[in-house]
Fold these 3 entries.
Entry 1:
Amino acid sequence: MPHLDEISHILFGKPSGELGAVERLVLHRSKERKTLSQDTNAAFVANQGVGDRLADSIARVGGSWGFIIAFLTFLAVWTTANTILLSRTAFDPYPFIFLNLLLSMIAALQAPIIMMSQNRQATKDRFDAAKDYEVNLKSEVELISLHNKIDTVLLREIAELRDDVRRLHAQLERERNSGPSGT
C-alpha cells in the first residue's frame, strides 16, 4: 500500500505536510474508507445555545403572517378603543404617544434579534458550504483513486498482452526456422 505522502502527491500534487486541514481530513477518511457526509442541519443545531434557539424562534414568529395579522389586529383594536370607545377616558388618546413608545421598544428589541438570526443563518450557510466542499473533495479523491486503479489494471493487461505477443512471435519464429527442410 502506498505511503501517505505518495498518495497525497498523486491526488493533490503536494506532500501531506503541505495539505490543509480539510484536505488531510478528506485523505484520512478516504484512506479509511469512511463516509464524510453528515446531516448539516442536525450538526449545526447541536452547536446552538439556548439564546440562539430563542432568537431563531422569535425571528421565525416575528417574520410570519400570523404575527403580522395579529399585530395589525392589535393596532386596530388599540386605535379604535382609544378614539371611539374611550373617547373621553382614553388611556392613550390620539396621537397615541404610549403606542409609539411600545412600538419603538418592540422594534428596538426585534431588530437585533432578527439580525442575530440572520447572522446565524449566514454562519449556517458557510458551514453547509464547507461540508459540501469536503464531500466534493472526497468525491474527487475517490474518482482520481478509481482512475489510478483502472490505469494500473489496464497497464498490467497491456504488459501481459505485449508479453503474449512476444511469446507468440518467438514461437512463430521457432516454427518457421524449424519448419520442413529440403524443399
Entry 2:
Amino acid sequence: MTSPERTERLILPGVLTAEQATQTVAGIAATQRADGAIPWFRGHHLDPWDHIEAAMALDTAGEHDRAEAAYNWLARHQLPDGSWYAAYADGDADTPTDRGRESNFCAYIAVGVWHHYLSTGDEAFLERMWPVVAAAMEFVLGLQQPGGQIGWKREPDGTPVADALLTGSSSIYQALRCALALAEYREEPQPDWELGVGWLGHAIQHHPERFLDKSRYSMDWYYPILGGALTGPAAKERIEEHWDRFVVPGLGVRCILPNPWVTGGESAELALALWVMGESDRALDILSWIQHLRAANGMYWTGYVFADDAVWPEEQTSWTAGSILLAVAALGGDEATMQVFSGERLPTGLPPDCC
C-alpha cells in the first residue's frame, strides 16, 4: 500500500490530506488487474483513455511500477494499425465490447508515456514505448480532415468517421504536442506531426463550425483550454462566458445542460483548466466543493443529481479518482504533471499560413 510519505505532493489544504490521498491511490490500485489493466471499476469495462488517466494518477503518488504495468498492457494489446478498441470487458483484450477505434482514446498514450518518463526518468521505458506512441500518432493523424480537425473514429469495419468532436480534438492537440516532445527528446524529427498539430490548433482556435455542436456538454466548454489550444485572453473569455451555465457553486460542474447533475471528473478537469490559466484560487474552490463526492473508502462517486439529492450513477470510477489526483498534483507542484498540462515546454507545431 502507498505510504503517506509518497503522497506528500498530493496534500492540498481543504481538499486532501496525505492520508486521504493514500487511501484514494490504494483504491485505484485495488481496481487494477494483475495484468496491468485498469477498468472503470471491477466488473466494468476498460477504455484506453480512462485507463491512462488512472495510470497517470498512480505516477503522481510514486506508484511507478503499477503505472508502467498499465502502459505495458497497452503495448501488448495495440492493434496492427496503431490503435486500440474503444472498450474491453474488464480489461480483457480478448473480449472487446466496442470494436470502434476512437482517435482521442488512441492519442492519449503520448500524454501518459511522456508523463511517466518525466516522473521516472526511465530511459528503457521510453525506448520500449516509442514505437507504440509513433504508431498511435500515425493512426490518429490518418483521421485528420482537410480543415485540421480530427475525425472521431474508425468504425469496426475500418470506415473512417469524418465528424470531429471539439473535446476529443482538444485532447488530441495536447497528445500530439507530448508526442512531439518525445520526438524532440529522441532527436527524431516528425514534420508531419508538426504540421498536423499546427492545423489542429488553428481549427480549434478559429473554426468552431468544423466540429459537431456539443455545446451542451461542459467538456466542450473547457477542453480547448485544458488541451492547451486556447490560452491568454481567449481562454479567459471562454471561461467567463459560460461559467454561470455550468458551474453550481458549492457542488461542482454540470456534465450536460440542462441536467441538474454535477460530476467529479468534469469538475476536476475544469479545476485543472483553471490552473492552466493561472487561476489556482478558483481551481481550489472547485476541488474543495467536490469532496462531497468522496466515499468512505477514499474513492469518488461519479456524480450527484442535486435536484433529487441523490448520488448517480452508483459507481466509483478509477478515472474520477484519477482526474482529482491529477488536478491536486498540478496545484501541488508535481513537476511531471505541471509539464504535460501547462504546455509551456511542449512544442507547438507549425501553424498554417492561411485558412
Entry 3:
Amino acid sequence: MSLTHSLANAISGMTAASRRAEIVSSNVANALTEGYARRELEVTASNVGGRGAGVQIIGINRYVDRAVLSDRRLADAELDGASSRAQTLTRLETIIGTADDDGSLSSRIAEFEAALIEAGSDPSSDVRLTNVVNKLASVTETLNRQSDSIQSLRQEADASIAEQVDTLNLSLKQIEKLNSDIVRTGSVDASALMDQRQVIIDRISGFVPLREMDRGNGRIALTTTSGLTLIDGKAAEFSFDRSPIITADMTQEAGGLSGLSQNGVPLSETAMSRLSGGTLSVSFTLRDDTFVTAQSDLDAIAGDLMTRLQGSTDPTLATGAAGLLTDVGAFSNGTNNVGLAGRIALNATVNQEPWRVRDGIGATTQGPVGDATQINRWIDAMFENRSINGGTARSAAEHAAALVSRVGSARLDAEDRVSFATARWDTLRSAELANGVDTDHELQSLMVIEQAYAANARLIQTIDSMVQTLMEL
C-alpha cells in the first residue's frame, strides 16, 4: 500500500470517527427529548480499483421499534379515552350525589317525606306545614340544578369535540407537510424531521387509535385501527360545528347538534364507529348517550314525583289542574318529560299558602286544622311502589337512590378500565424507552470513537513524518 492510499484511509477514518462523535453527542444531549430516536452512523469499506480506500459513510440510521411504538399509541387512545370517561363520570356522580351525600336527590326526597310524616302528626302546626313546602322546594331546586349541570357537561363535551377536531386537522396538515419535506431531503439526513413528525402523531394518538404505514422514501400514511384513512398523501379534513348552548331536547339525531364530517361528507354511524377508542369518540358518547340517559333518568324521576302529587292524590283538584308540583307553573300529564327536571317547580299557590298541604291545593277555604287526611294521601303516594318506564316498582326515594347507584356503578367501572389501561400503557411505555438512548452505552461508544480518532491521527502523523524523511533524502 502506498503512502497516498494510507493517508486517504486514515483521513476517511478520522472523518467517520468525527461524524460518529457528533451523532453520539446528539444522542446523549437528546436522551430525554420527547420523540427523539437514537441514531447510528452506517459505514462500509470503500474500494477503489480493487484496493481498499478507507471507510465510506452510507448514511444515518434512526432506530425505532415500530411494533412497540404502534402498540403504545393504541394504549394512548385507550388510556386517554378511559381517563376522560372516568373523570367526567366522577363529575356526574358529584352532581347527582352519592348515597351518603346530604345534598343528593334521594336525601332531599327523604327529607320531604320526613317533613310530611312530621306534619301529619300535628297538621295544625303552621311551622311543620311550611317545612313541608320548603323541603319540597329543595327537591325541585335540586332537580333544576342537576338538570342544568348535566347540560353544562354536554356543552363541555361538545366544546371538547370541536377542540380535538381543530387539533386533528392542524396535525394532519403538519404531517402532510413533513412527509413532503422528508422526501425532498433526498440523501440528506431527515431524522430531525421524522422526530418532529413522531411528536405530532403522538399528540393525536389519544384522540383516535392510529396505525402508521410506510409509503416509501420516508413518507407515512395514517389510518384508524378500523380502516378510516386520516392521511395517505393528502390529509383528510374533518369538520364539526360547535353548539354554544345545549338544552335537554337537543340531539344529533334530531338535527339539533352537529355530527362529524370528513372532507365535507357527514360520517355515517358505521364510519363513526371506526373512530372509536380514543377521546374523540368518548366525547361524542358522553354528549349523545351518557348525559342524555342521565337527563332522561332525572326527567323520569321528576315526572314520577309530579304524578304522585297531583290527580287522584288530591280530590280538591279539578281535571287538568296542577298539583303540588308544576311544569313551569302548568299542569303536566307526563307526555312531555324531556327536560322536565329543569322545568319542574313548586306550585306557587301552596308556596304562598302552606295550609293547602293539609287541606288540598284546590280547597276554597281552610278545613279543620286537625284533619291529616290529605297529608296522609301525600305520604301514601310518596311511599307507593310505582314503575318508571316499565322498570322495577319503587317508592319515590328509592327511584332516586337507584339513579345514584347506577351513576356510582358506572363511575367505578370506568375507574377499573383506567387501571387496566394504565398498567398496559406503563408496560408499553417502558418497552419503548428501553429502545431509546442508553447514555452509558453512548459514553462507552464515545471512548472507542476517541481511540479510533487518535489512532487515525497518529497514522497521519506517522505518514507525514515518513514523507518528510523522504523529502530530505
